[in-house]
Write a structure and sequence with these properties.
mainly alpha; 2 domains; two-stranded antiparallel ribbon; 2 strands; elongated
């Protein structure tokens, strides 16, 4: 690391440097961290891993796609697994006095 000759700076310049230094150090740390992460990700990818798998020591598991559990009686193409946000067609059906059980897909 090269040494900076601080004697070349005036007092106001040195005061300003002292004031700006904490933010400059913080920014440099963030950039260094990003660069290190990129290097580690590249190294992991070379070996066929992703970074999450290396860090947690677990392989990512893909969740199986859920089968539809409910069907819209007015449009058989509209289905819902029962997970996540309730579709508008289900909300409308329930608001009109229908029961959720009536929408169940019978296997």
């Amino acid at each position: 690391m090269k040494k900076v000759d601080l004697s070349k700076f005036s007092l106001p310049e040195l005061i300003q440097i002292k004031k700006d230094l904490p933010q400059a150090i913080s920014n440099a740390r963030k950039n260094e961290k990003k660069n290190i992460r990129k290097k580690i990700e590249a190294l992991a990818a070379e070996s066929g891993f992703d970074l999450e798998e290396i860090i947690t020591n677990k392989k990512k598991q893909k969740r199986a796609k859920a089968k539809p559990k409910y069907r819209n009686p007015k449009n058989s193409k509209q289905t819902w697994t029962g997970r996540g946000r309730t579709p508008l067609w289900v909300q409308d059906y329930l608001a009109s006095g229908g029961k959720k059980e009536d929408l169940l897909i019978k296997s």
